[in-house]
Amino acid sequence: MPASSGQALRALFLGAGTPWVYALAESLATQGHQVGVIAPFDTRTFKRLQPKWPGRQPPVNLQRQFWVYPPGYVGTLAPLFAPLLRARLNRSFPPATHVEGRNAVPWTIAPYPWAARATRGIPSHRLVYYNLDDYVLYQPERAASILSHEGELVRRAALTICLAQTQVDSLRARFPERAGSILHFPLGAVENLLNPAPSKVPNGRVVGYIGNLIDRVDWRLVAAVASRLPDVEFHFIGGLDGFSGGGVVPDWQIDRGKALALPNVRHLGPIGQDEVGPYYWNFDVNWIPYDLGHAFNQASCPTKIMDGLASGRPVLSSDVPECRLYPDHLSIFRSVDEAVSQIQRSLTKSTAAEACAQVEFVRERHTWATRAQWLSERLQSLASNSP
């Protein structure tokens, strides 16, 4: 497919081991842009995860590289490794020979604060900071360093895009002089999650959740809602990550055990990312019963928003800030009573027409293809207006 509009871009993505970074890069490449992706790992993590690129055939103009370095290469050893990373970065995706001047430099999309050191040789007019999360929550003990590097990226980058609106608001408050370049860029839906037959409403009285079954879920709410609806099945698909024995069991895991032990609650285990579509489509209702006291939930853009909406099935959520942005397509519950009543209403009043309209809403505005189109147009505009 040719580039959607204007001249084809050249872009290099760092941190592309993250699925939604890769999805964006792949969509840009599919639209005719020249794209490179780098997935850096430390040796221990690489050995433990044994990462692989998605099994589908990549676009011909998508270059992919794994980088593997000793532990600490972006932490305690960062001052030592930063020059090496910068040099390798410059070699891995050199300027196109048929383009001259400022536009010869590829766009570099940096999704993590650690990239501040590695991208210091990248001209600011060709740098994008792609904020995925509130990174301080990853390592609170390194907050000062993370905030410092993030600040460097926001000040230098021509554009900062944030998955969550809460992060847009936070960064604009911290850097008011850069507010105009800090924009909302929520997660998209992968094309194969769009329900091909949304009018075939399941009518099985199943409420579903897909994701890691960790402390981000409000398990007490789950148990209370499921107990109130004994004639409804609640399916949970995902791994039981977290505590592995050898100490005091956290309260949330005790609550999870009680919820999953209820007779109308089923834990179906983890599945591959390529398998989730039919599960979403066959649930009567998808829900996001997140714990509102969890800091990650307040600062995140849940993948379950667009993945659930792409199914054409009703999507219900606890009052997560990002979920409030879609009042015409997603229902918010603020108590057990509201969750129960919304589930009952969704099970009896959902129509085929509503299901089809919901899928079209995602197809037209919220796939990764539309996200890539928006980004390419924004970058082309920035390039044409740069001095």
Reconstruct the topology from this structure:
Layout: E1 10-13, H1 19-30, E2 34-42, H2 43-49, E3 62-69, H3 78-92, E4 107-110, H4 115-118, E5 127-131, H5 143-156, E6 159-162, H6 165-174, E7 182-184, E8 206-210, H7 219-228, E9 233-237, H8 251-260, E10 265-267, H9 276-282, E11 285-288, H10 295-298, H11 304-309, E12 315-318, E13 331-333, H12 336-349, H13 352-365, H14 368-385
Parallel strand pairs: 1-2, 1-4, 2-3, 4-5, 5-6, 6-7, 8-9, 8-11, 9-10, 11-12, 12-13
Helix pairs in contact: 1-14, 7-8, 7-12
Question: Could you list some keywords that capture this structure?
Answer:
387 residues; alpha/beta; Rossmann fold; 37% helix; globular
Describe this structure in words.
This protein starts with 9 loop residues before the first strand and ends with a helix. Helix 1 packs across helix 14, helix 7 (219-228) packs parallel to helix 8 and helix 7 (219-228) packs across helix 12 (336-349). The chain contains 14 helices and 13 strands. Strand 2, helix 2 and strand 3 form a beta-alpha-beta unit. The strands form two sheets. Strands 3-2-1-4-5-6-7 form a seven-stranded parallel beta sheet, sandwiched between helices. Strands 10-9-8-11-12-13 form a six-stranded parallel beta sheet, sandwiched between helices. Helices cover 37% and strands 16% of the residues. By secondary structure, it is of the alpha/beta class. The protein has helices at 19-30, 43-49, 78-92, 115-118, 143-156, 165-174, 219-228, 251-260, 276-282, 295-298, 304-309, 336-349, 352-365, 368-385; strands at residues 10-13, 34-42, 62-69, 107-110, 127-131, 159-162, 182-184, 206-210, 233-237, 265-267, 285-288, 315-318, 331-333. The chain folds into two domains: 10-188 and 367-385, Rossmann fold (3-Layer(aba) Sandwich), CATH 3.40.50; 191-365, Rossmann fold. The model is unreliable at 95-100 (pLDDT under 50).
